[in-house]
Amino acid sequence: MKKVKFILSMAVLAGVGFSACQSNSTKSADADSTATAADALVRDSSANMNEIRPLGPAPDWAPGIKPQMQAVMEKLASYKDKPIPELSAQEARKNHTPTDAVMDLMKENNIPMPVMAVDTIGKEIPVPGGNIHLRIYTPKNVTGPSPIIVYYHGGGFVIAGIDVYDGSSKSLADQTGAIVVSVAYRLAPEHKFPVAHNDAFAAYQWVLKNAAALHGDPKRVAVAGESAGGNLAVNTAIKARDSKVMLPTAILAVYPVAGADMNTPSYQKNAGAKPLDKPMMGWFVKNYLNNMEEAKDPRINLVAANLKGLPPTTVITAEIDPLQSDGMMLADKLKGAGVKVDSKNYDGVTHEFFGMGAVVPEAKAAMEYAAVQLKTALK
């Protein structure tokens, strides 16, 4: 039952994801009707979102947490799942997620499902050592070759998948008008480092070669990801540069895994934060890496990598997140390497907030910001 809830719930998340009204002098009656319905949903959702309130005082680990964000964390805690560091990877994949919490809050507060004009299909592709699955999101009513975003989900290289992060991909497709290809790279500990990194680059190469068949433009391909996926997005761009493969047009890295130091200011401040804490990060590292020395590999420790020559990059961070310093240091290192960088930190929210736009105002704003950044780069 948890797995079914897992899959269904993500379809409604990631930045409310309503279809933007396009300026068009020849709108059909159906288009007008859809736009009116979407506008009504936006108004209803925003009103109900503002009514979401936590049940208790702010937690000790986040005295400045925003009320809607706190409500999500309270709901997540109510499931009383065992902490992930106490579980095997297989057991951890069955735990409730922040997505489940958001879904339940939506039901309790009568927040309607977002309307997103996106079609999806699945595709199996070969990669070195096996096969992986892609989910392809194509915006409806878009003519001509579209830009493409190759998206990598989060989960510490160990848990989650494209179902859990379905909403992020769907919202990016809906808000940017780009085709989004979400990559189900293989997970650890079944597939240790650098399998996820190799799968990520193989998927990017497949997209470049098959862009025309997807009705996409092979000259306008961006990479994006959250957490572990943010790391994979940056690494894919680095590998493309080093392999003389076409560089991505842009990079979006949302609270990326970017360093090997677990004693940064944000790790110290947010050691006990939720839904991601310092012990969980240690658990992810032990499951993905073959040995702890690999943490120094520049594919993990991105802040020590050669970042010169990378495309324009957008970095999003959250205040209540052990990885906040990672993302901020990565943005600074990119700037120092001559890369065009735009970055934003969102106060009062936690790791994983980006996909909570249906109930957390800061998440809705972050998704809109990310979409604008990608649209600007891909136009």
Explained architecture:
With 379 residues, the chain is of the alpha/beta class. The protein has a domain at 118-378: Rossmann fold (3-Layer(aba) Sandwich), CATH 3.40.50.1820. 39% of the residues lie in helices and 17% in strands. It has an 8-stranded mixed beta sheet with strand order 1-2-4-3-5-6-7-8, sandwiched between helices. Strand 5, helix 8 and strand 6 (251-254) form a beta-alpha-beta unit. Helix 1 packs across helix 5 (98-108), helix 6 crosses helix 12 and helix 7 (195-210) crosses helix 8. The chain is globular and about 55 Å long.
In short:
With 379 residues, this protein is of the alpha/beta class.
Number of helices: 12
What class would the helix/strand composition place it in? alpha/beta
Low-pLDDT regions? 1-44
Secondary structure: number of strands: 8
Layout: helices, strands, pairs:
Elements: H1 2-10, H2 29-49, H3 67-78, H4 89-92, H5 98-108, E1 118-127, E2 130-139, E3 146-152, H6 166-176, E4 179-184, H7 195-210, E5 216-226, H8 228-242, E6 251-254, H9 265-269, H10 278-288, E7 313-320, H11 324-336, E8 341-350, H12 361-378
Helix pairs in contact: 1-5, 3-5, 6-12, 7-8
Keywords:
about 375 residues, alpha/beta, Rossmann fold, eight-stranded mixed β-sheet, 8 strands, globular
